[in-house]
Design brief:
By secondary structure, the chain is mainly α. Helices cover 64% and strands 0% of the residues. The protein has 4 helices and no strands. The radius of gyration is 24 Å and the shape is elongated.
Length: 121
């Protein structure tokens, strides 16, 4: 389906000596149903399409594959229930103060830039 989206004929070249390809091949030979290896191959193909300027048929499928691969790499169960993290009030207040300070700094920088431009005129 994705190949039919291509307007011109292009060739995807795979370097069989690349360590990722060698690793993928060994994983598929060991287990033809290895979900991580299948996800990796699909991500490689879809990112090659994107890099070549094509749009992929289902971007959310690519995103889900990337999330699964990241979860596996981090040793996190992607289907684990979300846990609410409580932030102590002191930390929340400190973050709010930091946000206000940053906004103030940005406004000061903008004021300085405006004054510099006036001086140039």
């Amino acid at each position: 389906e994705q190949i039919s989206m291509m307007s011109g004929r292009k060739t995807l070249e795979v370097n069989p000596n690349h360590p990722v390809i060698i690793d993928l091949l060994s994983k598929i030979k060991a287990d033809k149903e290895d979900k991580a290896a299948k996800d990796t191959a699909a991500v490689l193909f879809q990112t090659a399409l994107i890099e070549s300027g094509y749009e992929i048929a289902d971007p959310s499928a690519l995103v889900n594959r990337v999330y699964r691969l990241m979860s596996k790499e981090l040793g996190v169960d992607p289907d684990a229930p979300l846990k609410e993290v409580e932030v102590p009030e002191e930390e929340e207040e400190a973050e709010e103060e930091d946000d206000k300070d940053e906004e103030g700094d940005e406004e000061e920088d903008e004021d300085k830039e405006g004054e510099e431009k006036k001086d140039e005129l």
